[in-house]
UniProtKB/TrEMBL annotation:
Keywords: Membrane, Transmembrane, Transmembrane helix. Residues 53-343 form the DUF1559 domain. The chain crosses the membrane at residues 28-52. InterPro entries: DUF1559, N_methyl_site, Pilin-like. This is DUF1559 domain-containing protein.
Length: 370
């Protein structure tokens, strides 16, 4: 008993008696060891976080592809029922086959409105008056303010973004935004009838796509801004950068304009003064020419450069927040990944439906020039 007291390695038993059972001393973490463990956990989390973010972005990109796939099928289902692809707008040119004023296009309903029944949005479609332009729609129903899930790419976070709630030119209407647009021309929006894309200002049968549906880009992604004055992403109206885009790749015979008609052959031409609007065009290149460009400096910082059009022509780049490119849909309904560094001549030929040229990279050979 005495040895037990001296060593203090025994515990009290019942009624104050001493037990000879030894007491085990538990080792504890020192402060240094605890800090080392915390540091290791932090390193592991920092290594894991990019992988988690990458997995999330991969899931968002797949969702975006699914949206485009559904839209492509809706366009083709419309064609199967109507015998032609939907019109991208309802405007008629005022200068033979060329639109001299893009405002004629901007006030009309888009191709998205026409395919609403084929994306399970019949109720929204019924709210539109097909005989009226976007400003002639019901002020009670305001169908243009409906947000469509199939039009939203989760990477862009366009949900809740509106265009024009305080703009007098749009009668204080609020237009919901989305992330998908139709290529109407490899050159400018106003040249859609001369150098046509898959969808232009009139319904086109698939037979007009003489280059082949598998070689023609029909739909692509666009980005939006939270700024209510920026029209990019508006799905219900035929606004450049909203529901329609063009490449701004000029024709070899008419690099800066001239008389053209629907019989003109398209030869993509690299204009040294104008950059083609390839995917995710950066501020150092040509900028989106839009109906309006509020706060262009901030738009540059957001990697969405823009300027206000001069009334005669518009164009906009396909854009996304996916790394390295944008999703697109061919005229046969298949998905295509367009990289940011895609050859501009190749892209121009894939947008034009009847250039009669192979879809290869690089400029035309001298023999092909007229």
């Amino acid at each position: 008993m005495r040895s037990c007291v001296r060593s203090r390695r025994c515990s009290a038993g019942p009624l104050g008696s001493r037990s000879l059972r030894p007491i085990s001393l538990r080792p504890a973490f020192t402060l240094v060891e605890l800090l080392v463990v915390i540091a290791i956990i932090g390193i592991l989390v920092s290594l894991l976080l990019p992988a988690v973010q990458s997995a999330r972005e991969a899931a968002r990109r797949i969702q975006c592809q699914n949206n485009l796939k559904n839209l492509g099928l809706a366009v083709l289902n419309y064609e199967n029922q109507a015998g032609a692809l939907p019109a991208a707008c309802e405007a008629e040119p005022d200068n033979d086959d060329l639109f001299s004023n893009v405002s004629l296009i901007e006030g009309t309903l888009s191709w998205v409105v026409r395919v609403l029944p084929f994306i399970e949005e019949q109720a929204v479609y019924d709210q539109f008056d097909p005989q009226a332009d976007v400003l002639g729609q019901s002020l009670d129903l305001r169908p243009e303010s409906n947000e469509l899930g199939v039009m939203l790419c989760p990477s862009d976070q366009a949900r809740g973004r509106l265009y024009g709630p305080t703009r007098r030119t749009f009668n204080n209407r609020a237009f919901a935004k989305g992330n998908y647009a139709a290529y109407v021309s490899p050159e400018h929006i106003n040249a859609m009838r001369i150098y046509p894309g898959a969808m232009i200002n009139e319904r086109q049968p698939l037979a007009r796509i003489t280059d082949g549906t598998t070689h023609t880009i029909m739909l692509t992604e666009v980005r939006t801004r939270e700024n209510a004055g920026d029209p990019r992403g508006v799905w219900s109206a035929a606004l450049c950068g909203g529901s329609i885009v063009s490449l701004d790749m000029h024709d070899a015979d008419h690099p800066i304009g001239g008389n053209r008609d629907r019989n003109s052959m398209y030869d993509p031409f690299e204009n040294p003064d104008i950059d083609a609007l390839t995917p995710n065009g950066r501020p150092t290149g040509n900028s989106d020419r839009l109906r309006a460009c509020p706060d262009p400096a901030l738009a540059d910082l957001e990697l969405m450069p823009c300027s206000t059009h001069n009334g005669t022509w518009t164009g906009a780049a396909p854009r996304s927040l996916h790394v390295g490119g944008v999703n697109a849909v061919r005229a046969d309904g298949s998905i295509l990944w367009m990289t940011d560094d895609i050859d501009k001549f190749l892209l121009a030929r894939m947008v034009c439906i009847n250039d009669g040229q192979p879809n290869t990279e690089g400029s035309l050979t001298p023999a092909r020039r007229r």
